[in-house]
Design a protein that fits this description.
This protein has twelve helices and nine strands. By secondary structure, it is α/β, with parallel strands linked by helices. The chain is globular.
C-alpha cells in the first residue's frame, strides 16, 4: 500500500518510470499520500535516465480524491494538509521534467481530475469516469484541471451538478488520447510512453518546458485561488453541513430506508 516507482526497462519501454498509487479501498489519499505521490513524480522526472513517466493506480479506480474521513477526524490540520498535499501532487505532475502519461481506470474523481488534468497524455479504460463531486462533499477545487479536459460550458454543468463524464466522451473532446478495454490499459499507457521515451531525452525535456511555458493558464495560481474558497467553506461551517447531509443520505440509501 502507498506509492511505488518501478521501471519496465525492456525493449521500447526503456526510459519509462512507472509511478503506481495503491491506497485501498478506493484510492482516496491521506495527507501523507499526496506528498508521497508528489515526491515520487518529481524524483522520477529528475532522473536523467527517465524520458517519460506513467502515472497509474491499483484497484478499481484511479483516484477518489482526498480521505474525507481523515479530515473529519483530525479537523483543520488535516484540511490544510490535504490542501497543501493536493497542491504539491498536482504541481508535481504538471512540472515533471518529462511528459507524464496518466493511465486512468474506473473512477477519477476530485483529486483524480487534478492529477489527470495536469498530465500530458491520458489513456483511459472503457469503464473510466471523470468528475468533481465537490459540491456534494462540502468542498471546492480542481475546476482548473477539469477545464483542461472539457469546454467551458460543459465544465460548469459538470461542476454545478456533480455529474461525471465518460472516457469515451472525453476522447470525443480530444482530451483522452486512447480508450481501451480495462485489461489493456497499462499496456496502452506504456505503449504511448514508449513512443515518447524513444525521442532524444534532452529534447523531450526542452519540449516539456516549452509547452508549459506557452500554457494560457497558470495552473498553480489558478488552483491556489480555488483552494481559498474550500477553506472558506470549511471555516464558515458550510462544508460540515453539506458533508453531514450527504453522509446521512448515503446511509439511508444503503440501508434501504
Amino acid at each position: 500500500m502507498g506509492v511505488s516507482t518501478s521501471s519496465p526497462e525492456k525493449g521500447a519501454e526503456k526510459g519509462i518510470a512507472l509511478v503506481t498509487v495503491d491506497f485501498p479501498p478506493v484510492n482516496a489519499l491521506p495527507v501523507n499520500g499526496w506528498f508521497a505521490l508528489a515526491d515520487a513524480v518529481r524524483a522520477a522526472g529528475r532522473d536523467p535516465a527517465t524520458r517519460c513517466v506513467v502515472l497509474a493506480a491499483e484497484g478499481r479506480g484511479f483516484n477518489a480524491g482526498v480521505d474525507i474521513k481523515e479530515i473529519q477526524v483530525q479537523g483543520a490540520g488535516a484540511l490544510i494538509g490535504a490542501n497543501r498535499g493536493c497542491f504539491e501532487a498536482f504541481a508535481a505532475v504538471y512540472e515533471c521534467e518529462v511528459p507524464v502519461v496518466a493511465a486512468v481506470q474506473g473512477f477519477c474523481l476530485g483529486g483524480g481530475v487534478g492529477l489527470a488534468g495536469n498530465a500530458d497524455v491520458i489513456v483511459a479504460s472503457e469503464d473510466a469516469v471523470f468528475g468533481l463531486p465537490e459540491l456534494d462533499r462540502g468542498a471546492l477545487g480542481a475546476a482548473t484541471h477539469l477545464a483542461r479536459l472539457v469546454p467551458q460550458h460543459l465544465l460548469r454543468a459538470l461542476y454545478y451538478t456533480s455529474r461525471t463524464v465518460t472516457a469515451a466522451e472525453l476522447h470525443g473532446h480530444g482530451s483522452v488520447w486512447r480508450v481501451t478495454p480495462p485489461g489493456e490499459l497499462r499496456a496502452a499507457a506504456l505503449e504511448v510512453a514508449g513512443e515518447i521515451a524513444a525521442k532524444d531525452g534532452e529534447l523531450v525535456r526542452l519540449a516539456k518546458a516549452a509547452i508549459n511555458g506557452i500554457d494560457p493558464v497558470d495552473v498553480r495560481r489558478s488552483y491556489r485561488f480555488e483552494q481559498g474558497f474550500t477553506y472558506e467553506a470549511s471555516v464558515g461551517g458550510v462544508a460540515d453541513r453539506v458533508r453531514d447531509a450527504f453522509g446521512r443520505v448515503a446511509r439511508e440509501e444503503s440501508s434501504g430506508e
